[in-house]
Write a structure and sequence with these properties.
184 residues; Rossmann fold; Arc Repressor Mutant, subunit A; 2 domains; five-stranded mixed beta sheet; 8 helices; 5 strands; 13% strand
Length: 184
């Protein structure tokens, strides 16, 4: 059997591109999930690892979908090879259970981990710079302008949260947070 595995890191990301690639490779069954690769408790991936048998092929679109840690990737690939499972990483090719194949896999796994670490480092540096700005606010940007929020808070003086939400489209939870922020 040919099994595919697709993963994205957040619920907001789209799996469609990976699923199309895996279907294009003729996978008999595809496991997918929206779960960060930094965690080892990926239920669909773990379930897939339990099902794979000698002669099966595991197909993954990219190495970073397989594992983000070089150590975890190497342990997993060794276990798959020991069980007679072939591994095909589409942007790399078939990973051979030979000294050269394992060497290339180990090097590329190390590069994938390095790349992820660099992304985290750059993100932290950018956040540190952004925090120096007076108007820095962590998290998602506000969907509503200060003027819209102020208007909605003004309406709260004579209307219920539900009425204000219906009139402005601003949720009760957003209004409560804005009101709390005003009182701080």
């Amino acid at each position: 059997m040919k099994y595919g595995y697709a993963r994205v890191s957040t619920v907001h990301q789209d799996l469609e591109s990976q699923l199309q690639q895996l279907n294009g490779e003729g996978c008999d069954k595809i496991y997918s999930e929206k779960f960060t690769g930094t965690k080892s408790d990926r239920s669909q991936f773990n379930e897939l690892l339990q099902i794979l048998q000698e002669g099966d092929t595991l197909v993954i679109t990219k190495l970073d979908r397989f594992a983000r840690s070089a150590d975890n990737a190497i342990r997993t690939i060794k276990e798959l090879f020991k069980n007679g499972v072939r591994v095909h990483i589409l942007n790399m090719g078939i990973v051979e259970d030979t000294p050269t194949g394992r060497l290339i896999f180990n090097i590329l796994s190390s590069f994938a981990e390095f790349e992820r670490d660099m992304i985290v480092e750059r993100t932290q540096e950018g956040k540190a710079i952004a925090k120096q700005c007076e108007d820095f606010r962590e998290g998602r940007p506000n969907k509503y302008s200060k003027k819209q929020i102020d208007h909605a808070l003004g309406l709260l003086r004579t209307n219920s949260y539900k009425e204000v939400e219906e009139r402005t489209g601003i949720s009760k939870s957003t209004l409560i947070r804005a009101k709390r922020k005003l009182n701080d």
